[in-house]
Amino acid sequence: MDRGRECSILNPDVPADPSQLVHLDAGNPVLESTAVSRAPGKALFGLDADALASLMVAMGEPGFRGSQLAEAIYRQRVDDLGKITTLPRALRARLAADGWEVGCPRIAQVFTSVDGTERYLVQCAGADTAQAQTVETVWMPEGDDGEAGDGSEEDGAEKGATGKSWNRATICVSSQVGCAVNCQFCLTAKLGLQRNLSAGEIAGQVIAVLARHAVQVGRDRVNLVFMGMGEPFLNYDNFMGAVRLLVREVGLSPQRMTVSTSGIVPGIERFATEPAEVRPKLAISLNAPNDLIRQELMPINRKWNIKSLMDAVRQIKLRPRERVTFEYVLLGGVTDQPAHALEVARLVRRTGLPVKVNLIAWNPGPGITYSMPPPEAVEAFRATLAGEGIATYLRRPRGRDVFAACGQLKRTVEG
Ligand code: SAH
Ligand code: SF4
After folding, report:
1. How many angstroms separate the Cα of 302 from the Cα of each of 263, 306, 327, 351?
2. Scanning 88, 97, 127, 388, which has the fewest C-beta atoms within 10 Å of its C-beta?
3. Percent residues over pLDDT 90 in the chain
């Protein structure tokens, strides 16, 4: 069956023909999509300490007021200008009169899974309509094992939480509303690309969730995965802007962050030039054993095939103990055969890099006609890869009952 054609009918917003994906490259070299990035009105949230200091100086105030603002909105998570008591009352009033607000996104709706996972609809500031402006973020207490074996456990920077119902947690963050990449197995693809998120909207999801769970940065073990809605490397500047805010202003470690890409080669090449101080770890959505299958499942493969993808990945200068993760969605009967596992082993070994493979049993969604792999196939696939000497982990599906699992994010309000 020609799944590309089938899906383009189901999803008229998104071209199944990869030649039409060229529009993704318009504008800024090859990375910016054509979707308008609608930053909220005059939100302080999203500006870094330097930009806040410049704003203060422009208002005739001393530059250190910028650091006070950054401390209040990013570290203390104060969400109301009137409550930033380190600033003089008159200055707060002037800022408000000029139309400034803190503008951190807020959690508008919570869907709680039987397994403790929470899926949030996060409301961005300056919303026109509630639905158009919500994005999805997921909280997974105890994670989903996706972070196992990629070097993040060993950094020793943070100890387990005390007095909390969780020891460690993972927050899954969105980078766009919807997605243009049109992977045939993914529910987010059905939305098409609605818009890019600003850096503040991306980082703000994290702040809103940290506040909800009273996370103490530097003490509690929290991992971030940029694996929610959207393709981070098609919103590169805003994505990296968010990472810089999270590292420099919030105090999170980039070694506890992982960004996943469907294989946007110019994005990976640019990512390879980022300083280690602000570079998250990299995960590649491989999802298929060869170009033939991959281009059917992921039209983006016709623009950047597996070889060009692997060549780009090799440009990343890994930290000690860091590994590149390859994600692999097991689709029943399509990508879950033992022969596929042997092909995958060969592919990832040929990178010459320290790698690990995260297997994800496909999560179903309405309107997508693939099947879940039988548990025996999943185990056989895992065992074959492991037998080939590849570090292999099985990602636990979290929050499937509330549409919070991988590939299920679609602003589903019924839960
Ligand atoms: N756009 C980025 C990040 C978000 S998707 C990317 O594609 O990498 C995060 C992961 O979920 C990807 O590895 C993707 O292949 C996987 N995924 C998508 N739909 C899925 C589904 N229905 N079941 C399981 N995993 C899925
Ligand atoms: Fe977009 Fe990732 Fe879904 Fe592909 S898997 S459509 S890149 S969100």
Report:
1. 11, 9, 19, 20
2. 97
3. 73
